[in-house]
């Protein structure tokens, strides 16, 4: 069974600073990995996904994530935080068959301080 | 439709009453998923449909929960004899197929259920 662990339920950064949101996965088979963002009172929106192609994945709004098999990690980064990045971020995993629904982490709330 | 539509957006109900939550997926999406989001608990998988069939009901928390999908389109999640612990945001998502992990899920805005 797959699972993901997001380190830090709340991360606070200054505007213009580096954003780093951590995600570690557990999977007995090669996984697909995803980051979703949720703005207040909205559903989840796909930021980016890793599906066994390039290990460095670029997504929307300047975010990117790197798949590191040796570290079982898929951390989300952005070089310079904007106020509009304040939201809840979820890491998710599935197996490569796609036969199992996505398993989500508990989320990390990102606050951006002016 | 253009997106996944859920109704109602908010529902307040008395303990012991039954509630029905509706999800209208994107036209043409054959796979449909229900998740429950509780504060600090992330997203809990409940059930998914491929067409009108539900291959995996393992996430339903109790026999008070049931779901159906008709015509390969609209789905209804029913909670009978609601309890306070059922209070949460119920999210619906759809994808082109059960291999939706390749295509990505499109989520609705959710139904916020409050049991008083």
What do you see in this structure?
- The complex is a heterodimer of chains A (114) and B (116).
- By secondary structure, chain A is an all-beta fold.
- Chain A has no helices and eleven strands.
- Chain A has strands at residues 3-7, 10-14, 19-26, 31-38, 44-50, 56-58, 64-68, 73-78, 87-95, 103-104, 108-113.
- The termini of chain A are far apart.
- The model of chain A has no long low-confidence stretch (mean pLDDT 91).
- Chain B has 116 residues and is mainly β.
- Helix content of chain B is 3%, strand content 51%.
- Chain B contains one helix and eleven strands, in the order βββββββββαββ.
- Chain B has one helix spanning 100-103, and strands at residues 5-7, 10-13, 19-24, 31-38, 42-50, 53-56, 65-69, 75-79, 88-95, 106-107, 111-115.
- In chain B, the strands form two sheets. In chain B, strands 2, 4, 5, 6, 9, 10 and 11 form a seven-stranded mixed beta sheet that branches.
- In chain B, a hairpin with a 5-residue loop joins β7 and β8 (75-79).
- The A-B interface holds A 9, 32, 34, 36, 41-46, 49, 51, 90, 94, 97-107 and B 4, 33, 35, 40-43, 45, 48, 56, 91, 93, 97-102, 104-105, 107-110.
Observed structural traits:
heterodimer; A: 114 residues; mainly beta; 11 strands; globular; B: mainly beta; seven-stranded mixed sheet; four-stranded antiparallel sheet; 1 helix
Instruction: Report the radius of gyration of chain B as a whole number of Å.
Output: 13 Å
Overall mean confidence score, pLDDT of chain A: 91
Low-confidence stretches of chain B: none
Query: How helix-rich are the residues of chain A, as a percent range?
Result: under 10%
- Sketch the topology of chain A as an H/E string, one letter per element: EEEEEEEEEEE
Strand content of chain B: over 45%
